Amino acid sequence: MSLGDHLEELRQRLIYSILVVSAFMVGTLYFGSEIHTFLIQPYKSVLGPDAHFFQIQLMAPFLIYLKTSFILSVLVSLPFLLYILWGFIAPAVDPRTEKWGKFIILFSTLLFWSGLALCWFTVFENFLRVFLVVLRPDGVDPYLPIDEYYDLFFNLHLVFGASFQLPIVLILLGRIGILSSRFLISRWREAVLIISVVSAVLSPGPDVFSMLMLLVPLSFLFFLSAIIMKVLETTDRK
């Protein structure tokens, strides 16, 4: 295929990706009110069922609906988007790499969603409680502007989702020969120390609980990556 053919195929795949995200956005916009009610549950769990938000900017609620719809649509359609992108790359790789590519797409998506779930079920509400209740001085109104709440919500969840891509990064570095399972296992103490520092920096709150909620799963994923790399290396030698 010529360069023009490759660019045309890339253009078509970008159009497919936009159509997929747009289709999900129609649904998320239609159920926008229900999604909003669901996403503010941690806030109301911390401050009570009568907790409310402030509207500082005129268009903040409208822009939040659009932003929430877009982000959720991308997250839900993530495996479809990655598969469309992989379809553009696959013809340039050998059949074995193509097979592993599909597995990595699925594995990466599950890891990302797992990070989001961990943040939702264990971290985010605790983060709100620390800053809105535990560390709040007397006489300070605890209620947040609506746009600040959603910025915190998405930023923290995306940090956890991205952090859970650690096995993908390590395995890919192993497949191209930069890392090996022997090196990872021999340097596990240094790795856990680095993960501890990263967890302390990225954890949403000053409490130890938030740090451990990132440190423990990332440490587990590090050792899981070393095991998977060892299995792959053993398979390559056969």
TrEMBL record:
One of its GO terms (cellular component) is TAT protein transport complex. The keyword Oxidoreductase does not apply. It is a multi-pass membrane protein. Pfam families: TatC. It comes from the Bacteria. The chain crosses the membrane at residues 14-33, 70-91, 103-123, 152-176, 188-205, 211-232. One of its GO terms (molecular function) is proton motive force dependent protein transmembrane transporter activity. GO terms for biological process: intracellular protein transmembrane transport; protein transport by the Tat complex. The keyword Transmembrane applies. InterPro entries: Sec-indep_translocase_CS, TatC. Keywords: Cell membrane, Membrane, Protein transport, Translocation, Transmembrane, Transmembrane helix, Transport. Forms a complex with TatA. Part of the twin-arginine translocation (Tat) system that transports large folded proteins containing a characteristic twin-arginine motif in their signal peptide across membranes. Belongs to the TatC family. This is Sec-independent protein translocase protein TatC. The gene is tatC.
